[in-house]
User: Fold this.
Amino acid sequence: MSATVDHRTKFPHLRQDFAASLVVFLVALPLCVGVAVASGVPAELGLITGIVGGLVTGMMRGSSFQVSGPAAGLTVLVFEAVQEFGLPALGIIVLASGLLQLAMGAFRLGSWFRAISVSVVEGMLAGIGLVIIAGQLYAAAGMTAPASGLGKISGLPRALVDAAGSATALASLALGAGTIAVMLVWKRLPRPVRSVPAALAAVALATLASLAFAMPVDTVEVQGLAGSIQLPGLDAIGGLADVSMLGTVLAFTLIASAESLFSAAAVDRLHDGPRTEYDKELIAQGTGNVVSGFLGALPMTAVIVRSSANVQAGARTKASRVLHGVWLLLFAALLPFALALIPIPALAGILVHAGWKLIPLRSTVTLWRAHRGEALILVVTAVAIVAVNMFEGVLIGLALSVAKTAWQASHIRLEVTDKGAGPIEACLTGNATFLRLPKILDNLEALPQDRPIRLDLSGLHHLDHACGTALENWSTRHSAAGTEPVKVTELPLERATSG
Assistant:
């Protein structure tokens, strides 16, 4: 009896966490496999990353309820990296990205990712979603997709025509479409049925259908868990001297970190428990990526689908995400043959659905109505990712965001009121920075030299040192022309000259 009491005291939430871990496992299993196959790597590598996300990252501090593993958001980048550098180089790229994340967490840079424009992040996800959808439509038809994002989209009409003339392609497409249909209608079914995760149910039904009707579709290739592990070799480490590989490492680091920390902010809104410690979460993600990279597996991020399922399933501590890693390990070790039964079109359907959810259609429309500049940044970022590549597309979005902020920060307006008699009223509003100094001085110096002037600065949000000094000099010059001294209405103390 006392042993039972001690057990319950030491693990007071074990029952809730155990149940939640099973739910997360069932959600994570098809996604781990699907992301790996879509990335052009063995399915087992997705499971390895999911296992590391549970057993390693899940044990660490940061966010108590986030669940980490391979994410659809990095599928495009991983595929491009494998195509360019080869599968053996993937591990060292992921490992180097993890080391960078550890360094950023150690230097307390985690919170800075929260400063990245939401428009850039949503544009990044939208671009990724478009490329995933286009690429997986080829996979659903049993075809090979073009390498570039633009090629994937432009080649869809021709691929559709080719598929219409092939019974095998049509059967494959039908299975993929059926998988998407199950995903869409599952949430409308009775609650007892919905206790089974939609992705797992869709893949299971597609697998049963392909077996029952002997459908001529491709299935997942199985190598075995141990056979899929590729430790980084010296050749792969030497590849880090390549500038293009370093760019890929930076892209992995930036996108994985941003996606994880934005996911943390979203998960924090789903529960009333401890808030995320961003620097520690970045260290946890970095540690997981170092281990995943050492094993030659996929990069990991915190994944909002698994994390929200964890919270909604009633998880109370981080034990649920650790246990989900245990279930993934047991499945990969004891039931690897089950993977060989899964049809590729079913996984393609899962990824098409996941890609569609990455595209923020509603928020884009709302953003366009309220902040068109931000909406434009979102759209340009998405288009750049599709047209160029992931890393450069994100950089373009960040550059636009910085340019927009700089323009807004330097926006200033001069209103001149001249009633014909008495002093001229000149009112400056906005932000007086050195970027707008020439415009400010040109407008002030164009005012009549023989009239008294009242300069009202109370409408300024900010007055930097360069502008403050220039206004003082202009005031002195104007007053020296034989007119009354310029009368200045100063800024409030909290908005006074800085710098």
In short: The two ends are 69 Å apart (CA to CA). Residues 11-360 form one domain. The chain has two domains: 11-360, 412-495. The longest strand covers residues 453-463.
